[in-house]
Amino acid sequence: MLAAVFLRPGQMEVMEVDTPDIGPDEVLVKVGANTICGTDVRIFRGEKTKGIPLPTILGHEMAGYVHKVGQHVRGYEVGTAVAMAPVIACHHCFYCQNGMENVCPNPKIVGYDVNGGLSEYVRIPAEAVAAGNLFVVQKDVPSEYLALAEPLACCVNGHHRSRIHLNSTVLIMGSGPIGLFHLQLALLAGARAVIVSDPSAPRRAVASTFGAHITVDPTTDDLSSVVSGVTGGLGVDAVIICIGIPTLVNDALNMARQGGRVNIFAGLAAKGWAEIESNLIHYKELKVTGSANSRRADYQTALQLIESGRIKVEAMVTDRFPLRSAHAALDKAASGEGIKIAVMGL
To answer: What helix, strand, coil percent values describe the chain, rounded to 5?
Structure first.
């Protein structure tokens, strides 16, 4: 089969490799599409190396079709459309036992520990099949849209922590794919005012088409004044940081109302050190949370939101590349142009 093999930072080669054999409890999936994540770009650049075996096949946002089923597997038929939740938790640790499988310290992750979706076929390990990580798709939706269930699932996890509800005021910092998902989730939850901040005019324009009430260029406009004006000086109920700039953390603390919530959704650059006024958390009684990965329940919710059309994904996939051009797809994603970049299966 054809696969884009990540050999070392900065080097990926599209080559013929052996099609995976599967065991009696496994499933072989023919990849329909794999969308590129910012983490894939960081790995390719060498900015993220911990836990990444070499060589490997990247790609954890994927969907496709069942190609072969192990003799002990039930519930999957050849040709069935499927989508894959990539975090294969251990299901035995404290966190897995307490509803936090997304932070399991002993996971296997498709696209890292298990060869991923930048290939013609993907072997779904027995433990993933048994745990229900491979979801059968219920409606006829193109693979490149189904693949977005993975980043959306992560946003569903963060959305729960932000506790957005009817009449909430929300500030979303960053209007890339993650910011656009959080925007849509906030609107679905009934937020009355969603402010989206991003220095990119094209991305602000897309946020407006997705329903943002106000968009702000923080490099030319006073974002704090905009927030104050919208909220009558109170500050917003919830701030979601969707871009990994450490200085934004303190900005978010300042713009949340007393008793408000700040969710640090994005992984912050370098080691993530941010200088903050801790007294803002103390005196304003702020609730500061983080978000990491997603649970299978979050993935199921995300998949259902896409299948139902409640979350709009068509406009988010702006570029499609063939598997042979996987390197170009990574370059496109790294450029910041477009929104989501899809590598299409053969």
So the answer is: 35, 25, 40
